[in-house]
């Protein structure tokens, strides 16, 4: 009897494949064809009990192609792909990878430009976009660079601060605007009840729920192997440090003066380089060896994110070294290569692919908490 029910569930999932289901399959969610809704993924997950959530339900939405239900579901963002569910799945459906594919699907749904869809579904488009942005950046540097001073390093003359700063801020503002619209779309899709809350509630939960989860990524700490939480945090804080140094404090870091070990800010830069390089190389090593469920299944956008991030660090540290020892031409060349990697990383990663998950994960908890408060208000009214 149980075998018959399993076969029926799998057959229905196959027959009811829709555009939504097909998209998730293309994004790596092949396991939805194997899953027969036994619920072991939810039972084994260390997060599900504390947050009273069901990953089984999310997989069911994907199996049946329930687009609106899936788009409004915040559950997939709670998963950090520790792999406990995949290790215990009796059908080898790999629920961890299904959750990853659903997060890619949700990123596509939130993105109003359609760029995420193109990048996720076509690796040739992804590679072409990286190369095109890199070449375009190189062309801009070639035509807009300042004097090439050879008797000393004059980086701020070769790459004028007004051009670098203005260009960086324009890119940052444009990407932030796209991401903010995507976040608003996420909010609209996942707000289950049209009930207005007082402003102080939004602020309170922002400080209580969103901020701590953003700064600690603490749901990853639920996973049994905390090494991967540390790697994740290193990459996160390394990137945050580099953003502060070369966006907020660019006036102090982009100078003609030697930088490495010569400026107090260089130690923040060294931390950034160490954190991202170590974390990134560990992630690359894990993905190559495929020794853990968290590393077994990597989408091309995952590789793009981590490889470009490590290359940014390597070219950044060599820029600092050449600049500090006074090698003028190597400094200008490696800095140009550095910028040609930074631009595609930011443009493709921030609003459209992997980087955006850093924003969506804590926001999912925040929006879920607001929905919980709305439901409580309705219950209070009904009881009254």
How much helical structure, as a percent, in the residues? over 70%
> Count of helical segments?
20
The backbone outline, from C-alpha atoms, is: globular
Mean pLDDT: 87
**Count of separate structural domains:** 2
Listing every helix as H and every strand as E from the N terminus to the C terminus, the arrangement reads HHHHHHHHHHHHHHHHHHHH
Q: Are there runs of 5+ residues with pLDDT below 50, and where?
A: 6-16
Derived from helix and strand composition plus strand pairing, the structural class reads mainly alpha
Task: Describe the fold and architecture.
This protein has about 375 residues and is mainly α. About 70% of the residues lie in helices and about 0% in strands. It is globular, with a radius of gyration of 23 Å. It starts with a helix and ends with a helix. It has two domains: about 1-110, Fumarate Reductase Iron-sulfur Protein, Chain B, domain 2; about 115-375, no CATH class. It has 20 helices and no strands.
Salient structural properties:
384 residues; mainly alpha; Fumarate Reductase Iron-sulfur Protein, Chain B, domain 2; 2 domains; globular
